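REVIEWER CHECKLIST
Item 1: Sequence provided? yes
Item 2: Single chain? yes
Item 3: Sequence as submitted:
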Amino acid sequence: MKNLHDKRRAGVTLLELMISMAILTAVTGVLFTLSLTIGDTARIQNSKINSNDEARRALLAIVPRLRQAQRVSVNTAQFPGDVLSFRMAADIDGNGSAVNVGGALELSGVITVQRDADDLNGDGLTTTQLIMINGDAVTVLANNLSPDPGPAPVPDGAELPENTAGFWVESQNGGVLITIRTQGHSRRGHVIRQEFTELVNPRN
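Item 4: Structure as written out by the authors:
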């Protein structure tokens, strides 16, 4: 009789089972939330890394060319704006120098950097893509630009709205300030924006 009583007491009661399940549910919920948080953090970091790579690639293409540009060829009359055009020093006659036999600076054709609003390269991406146009060649410099346009002109004395353009150029301290803004999204749809700037002084 004593052994039978002990066997009955060895089982798990309904109350103990419910408490165990409640604890297990709470722990599972915490682990699930933690995994989502880690996933969001990883996606945000990946978005920032990709944005850094895109902007750096664009600046590595633009800055050296703009430094070799003829200062008067830069479209500063259209600044501030979202189009940059210039002509850079180039060895046109093949004499090993960007200066011809007459001592004049040789210049390339017009190079234009702008967002691909008209999908000139036919890849289906438009305002989120930055391109460089050099003659008939269209080169993609960066993707994931902020699709927002630059601020519209305002009357004198009015407050200028915040500039969130993906690509923007303006005159500053005798040089050209280039701004590239990239945009990504977190898992939960939050917009992640980053801004990269470079001040370039044309040398010619």
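Item 5: Key structural point noted by reviewer: Residues 152 and 161 are 8 Å apart (CA to CA).
Item 6: Recommendation: ____
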